[in-house]
Design a protein that fits this description.
mainly beta, nine-stranded mixed sheet, 25 strands, globular
């Protein structure tokens, strides 16, 4: 989980699996540096294979890569990845899995982007969360090449402007792309497969 990083620049990549259960986070997260990180080069670190329980905070610039088989398991309420008031964050190639036994409204979002600029959310796979990717009050971000399935909304925009949504796939959601109260969105090359109500829902665009 990423929560309230102070101008953090971070990257999560290489198919890190994030597992969590429901709702809004309650317990204080651990700092990501409490994990057994391996140094790769200057300010570049990797998380070795294994399952790490708890919620984790990145509050400083870091390049973080997950080795194959690295799993962050929240073991309680929370979002998959929460980016809050940060700039130039990249979230690349992660697998995020919620608890399919809960009602969707009782789950958190897979990737939650709030008051953030310059984020790149690329090539992630999100299943069984509330919304796959939620973007609120966040301008100038890129959502590309993600696969989002078994959700309420695949991509959900609220009050966010000058964003790009390119080449994503939504599948088995209630609505693939919910674009609401947002301006200057570039939405091209996306697919909606077996979504129940709408492929793309536009409200005050």
């Amino acid at each position: 989980m990423l929560k309230r990083p102070a101008r953090a620049v971070s990257r999560l990549s290489a198919a890190c699996a994030l597992l969590y259960f429901s709702g809004v986070a309650q317990a204080a997260p651990q700092n990501i540096t409490e994990l057994p990180l391996s140094a790769e080069s200057d300010n570049r670190w990797s998380i070795p294979a294994g399952e790490y329980q708890g919620q984790f905070l990145i509050d400083q610039p870091i390049h973080l890569r997950c080795e194959d088989g690295a799993i962050l398991s929240a073991q309680g309420p929370g979002f998959g990845i929460w980016i809050d008031r940060a700039s130039d964050v990249s979230v690349i190639g992660n697998n995020i899995q919620g608890d399919e036994n809960l009602r969707s409204q009782n789950r958190g979002n897979g990737i939650h982007v709030f008051s953030t600029k310059g984020a790149r959310i690329v090539d992630n796979h999100v299943r069984h969360t509330r919304d796959g990717i939620y973007i609120g009050n966040a301008n100038g971000n890129q959502i590309e090449g993600n696969t989002l399935e078994d959700l309420r909304y695949g991509v959900h925009y609220m009050f966010s402007h000058d964003n790009t949504v390119i080449g994503n796939i939504t599948r088995n959601t209630r609505t693939g792309y919910a674009l609401m109260q947002s301006r200057q969105l570039t939405v091209t090359g996306n697919r909606s497969e077996h979504d129940q109500n709408y492929g793309i829902l536009m409200n005050y665009i």
